[in-house]
Amino acid sequence: MVILLKAIMISGRTLGQGASCEAKMSPEFFKAVAFCTLSEEDYRSLGLSEEENVLVSTEFGEVVVSARRDGGLPSGVIFIPMGPWANAIVGPETGGCGTPQFKGVEAEVEGTKMPVKDVRELFADLMTRTDGDAS
After folding, report:
1. Going along 1-135, which residue ranges are E strands?
2. Per-residue pLDDT of the chain (135 residues; tens, 9 = 90+)
3. How many other CB atoms sit within 10 Å of the CB of residue 65?
């Protein structure tokens, strides 16, 4: 039985992301941004255990990221650091400011056995999706 969590996704900058932003293809950058934090309650309700991944889906796309617990996050809110994985699931609209809406994105989250794609694989998939939309 698949357990599906409806949540609001927010994104922002993190210290780990800042420390590794000079090498965006590095394993350090991957570890710093390819994750999703959930509240303790939501983590348990999805039946997740250590080192598991989640599939996060929005109306704009979907992405697999590793799951982490955050005791300070309220239930029903997930956090993904700004970066390629968050970009894959936010909309293109910028409201005239040049930056997409990284806060308040409705999402569905479920546990998955699928692997987290590295940045090259993620970009290749995004390009395939974009090419497919044009035809």
Report:
1. 5-12, 35-38, 53-58, 61-69, 77-81, 103-112
2. 678 999 999 987 765 555 445 555 666 766 778 899 999 999 999 999 888 999 999 998 999 999 999 999 999 999 999 888 888 888 666 555 555 566 778 999 999 999 999 888 887 877 776 555 544
3. 25
Dist. CA 85–CA 95, nearest whole Å: 21
d(CA 102, CA 94): 10
d(CA 132, CA 64): 20
User: Can you give the CATH number for the domain in which 104 is found?
Assistant: 2.40.40.20
Yes or no: say if 8 and 76 are a contact pair by the CB < 8 Å rule.
Answer: yes
Give the pTM: 0.81
Q: What is the 8-class DSSP label of residue 90?
A: S
Find the domain containing 18 and state its range: 5-134
Our count of domains for the chain comes to 1
